[in-house]
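Sequence of RNA-binding protein KhpB (Limosilactobacillus oris F0423).
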Amino acid sequence: MVVYTGKTVKEAIQQASRSLHQPEAALKVEVLEQPRRGFLGIGRRPAKIEATIKPPKATPAPQPVTAAPTAAPVKPVADQGRSVSAAVVHPNHPLEEGDDQDPAVIKARHEANIRHTRNAGQQLTAYLKKVFADLGIETDPQLSKVGAHSVMINIKTASSGRVIGRHGSRINAMEQVSAAFMNYHGAPKTSVVLDTSNYRQRRREALHQIAERAATEVVASGKAVFLDPMPARERKQLHQELENDDHVRTYSHGREPYRSVVIAPKN
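Predicted 3D structure, token representation.
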């Protein structure tokens, strides 16, 4: 088997045409691998095809004309139902009519989504390890939780402060890169949470204290308090912390990645 490569499938076919001294229309082409641009230079690969020369078309011999036989009546076959195990359920395959009501199909699709997300998550852990190594930080990222559309990765390291960055800037930025990585590897709209040394739990407790202090300041001064920019997940926690407060209201201000929470008097 002769394999031809190129940046695109078209370039690979042109390479095969030149090597075999045949026009492209005379080639039988089988695509072995689609090209991949890679993510930030990682995972790049060329297109790969197998090409052979098509055999010449044989002229069919004339066939005697005979009367068509009478078709036998077709017996109706009772619907025996579809077997879920007989078909491969792909997470991106559209549901057929009635599938959304079939518990077995729904369960199989959910399990397929989890497997697909786990595979992409395992690739993400290897990618994160390389990125942090390029920054001079030795880490061991591990999948701790996997859902159909969510992953949590615990980054084990002796340098958790460098992984977190100032006010969580580095770990939050890596979460955004990780979400883009998952989307590129076929797991779109996947929520990615990165954690190290229980930082996320400590951050939740800190946000609770920030909300209480800011609300007290707003009530005492009668003026709005603008908090530092933070990720959407942390803004959501602050909104929830104060949504039942009778004296203050919250809203978000600015554009990503500098969007922040404002705590203002309710009246």
